[in-house]
Amino acid sequence: MAKKVLKFGGTSVGSIERIKHIANIIKNENSQNNQIIVVVSAMAGKTNELIGYSNSISDNFDKRELDVLVTSGEQVTSSLLSGALIELGVKAKSWMNWQIPILTEGEHGNSRILNMNIEEINNFISSGGVAVIPGFQGISKTGEITSIGRGGSDATAVIVAKIFNTDSCDIYTDVDGIYSSDPNKIPVAKKIDKISYDEMLELSSLGAKVMQSSAVQAAMIYDIPINVKSTFSNRKGTKIFSQENIDYSKSVTGVAYSKDDAKITLIGVLDKPGVAADIFEPLGKNQINIDMVIQNISSDGKKTDITFTLKRVDLKKALKIIKENKKIKFIDIHNNDKVSKISIVGAGMVTTPGVTYKMFRALAEDNINILAISTSEIKLSVIINEIDTLKAIKKLHTTFDLD
Amino acid sequence: MAKKVLKFGGTSVGSIERIKHIANIIKNENSQNNQIIVVVSAMAGKTNELIGYSNSISDNFDKRELDVLVTSGEQVTSSLLSGALIELGVKAKSWMNWQIPILTEGEHGNSRILNMNIEEINNFISSGGVAVIPGFQGISKTGEITSIGRGGSDATAVIVAKIFNTDSCDIYTDVDGIYSSDPNKIPVAKKIDKISYDEMLELSSLGAKVMQSSAVQAAMIYDIPINVKSTFSNRKGTKIFSQENIDYSKSVTGVAYSKDDAKITLIGVLDKPGVAADIFEPLGKNQINIDMVIQNISSDGKKTDITFTLKRVDLKKALKIIKENKKIKFIDIHNNDKVSKISIVGAGMVTTPGVTYKMFRALAEDNINILAISTSEIKLSVIINEIDTLKAIKKLHTTFDLD
Predict the structure, then answer these.
(1) DSSP state, B176?
(2) Distance (Å) from the C-alpha of residue A141 to the closest C-alpha of chain B?
(3) Neighboring chain B residues of A69 at a CB cutoff of 8 Å
(4) Cis bond leading into B101, ω under 30°?
(5) The pTM is what?
(6) Fewer Cβ in 10 A, N or C end of chain A?
(7) ipTM score here?
(8) Do A246 and A348 contact (CB within 8 A), yes or no?
(9) Using the beta-carbon criterion (under 8 Å), do B66 and A56 form an inter-chain contact?
(10) pLDDT digits 0-9 by tens, B80-136
(11) Searching chain A, which residue's CA lies closest to the CA of residue B77?
(12) Could you give the domains of chain B?
């Protein structure tokens, strides 16, 4: 007997047939005397549909009302799933954000869960009932409806696991785990059995879509082990937990990539303190996220070049801000909107000499030009021309024995 | 300056364009210094879609969860409309059922609004804001989500008008008022400027779809005058109010009909007390609604015939129950599943001699056979063969100068 959180994402509740299907998964867990709290997302596509409505009304739809709007989808799936469980003879009940309540803090559209009232739900699951609660939402201290950001249902599941002190947190999704690379692009990509929070964070922030970074972060902070598994197969999933539990026989765990990147290089910037701040502060204030930043030591101690990457959609705006910024002096500015970032990730990298060299050599063998390099303890990223993306992923996948 | 309830039905909020359109209607009302409370339905078709989902899961979907499910639609329209108003520069805010709260009593799916907290909304509208609240729902004393029955948004509007003591209650819909008959069937049908609660009740229960009977009943009980008007035209609508305010120059206000009826006649039933109860009690207990009941005085004081009408869909079940009921003795049983009911309605009928005679003569002139007759103070209904329905409506419409 265990106390479990089971979280089902949008595709897992994307149709009535699928809701019936997961009701059977839950019934099976419940029949093994487990205490079950289920967290559900809205039906796949529903949240985007609602946001589409709000965009048709205003470019700047009121944030309070947007939260009222987008949190309605989980009300639908919570009640449908509870009804499906009751139909199967399972004692089940849905709770809305305000009925528990799920207390949040922070701004509309980007709140954090602070606490939940656990007594009523604990009583219900202790007596054999399945509690179904909506992900992605809560209410503020003043009783306003708040959403906790896109993909927030994963974060809800992790926080529920923490607050209810459950034995596990299972994230059911439409893939059967975390892969060494995108299995749609790289047919030889392999499922990873165990991965650390850090590695998962690097993979998610680099484009792996399985779990949202904020949820992985929360799991890491609270040390909640996560099982990522498929709603649609019985295959063993991927376990995400702390690094010390993982035996690293391989230096590299996976190859990730991010698309839609762009690169800006400022040539001949003054090499003195405060220059980087002058460049990036106005970009940050304009909600432009900067990813990699590379600055070499200047040869003459006076001028240097700064290269940074950002989302392609922000490129125009960023160039305008830089050119209009009187504080920044530079000789020339280059930009490239056809680049992508390829990263190898692995907690074992730090203890394995030669990974860096091996990566660069492999790319050179396939005539892939490296435009910029950035490293961290468990990650090595390079910017390359977008056209080489697939070739690079395949090459690195093979190079690091991931096939 | 007036305090007003404006209620918009499903077709009036059925698309983003329509929501923008009604935001302009509301802005216009608000700019005339009126204090506005808006009650909204779900987008047209949405509630049926949700009920369809629940039916795909269970023939007997849990009633508590069904209420959670079906009340989600108004959350969407409340927030979209508030956002659309804010986009137009109008101060606006949505309140959910639990935020007001709207307190209800009664069973799931069929609750009644008991009370609402008016202070916060009164403050908001006094300061020029437009309050948007969801129709059709509330919460029970124990904090459960409750719906108040199909078409319940009209009832919400009436109760809001009562509790907030507003000067008027405007029901915006997709037709521009109440007609003397179905304008789709009878092109010469005329819009009625003024109609009494009683007449409206008879017309609604007889098939006029503009307003739900329960809402008209509530308006009558609290004496709340209703304006039914079109969202899509500027034509003057229909005012529904108490009888004493209406000047009856015409004896008959409208002609209504109901389709899908069936008729059962029991021949040679014992003419003694309790027989009718023996017949109808088991039908009622099986959720079969009986409409008209006609019983003549028996000629010999021993045996009589009883005719009654019911919905066609219930005919088979009713016949089975009667035949299996050992308490009822009869010589023969007839049934007819191809009948319809035509009614003339008018508060002036009671004071106008000859309406009854005129109706029967008119039908006879067109060779329409009357199968049964039932009368009330403001209504005269006849059961005829279904095939004669349209002919009868047209004839009566002309006979009573409604063209």
Answers:
(1) S
(2) 13
(3) 75-76, 79-80, 83
(4) yes
(5) 0.79
(6) N
(7) 0.78
(8) no
(9) no
(10) 999 999 999 999 999 999 999 999 998 899 899 999 999 999 999 999 999 999 999
(11) A69
(12) 3-174 (3.40.1160.10), 255-399 (3.30.2130.10)
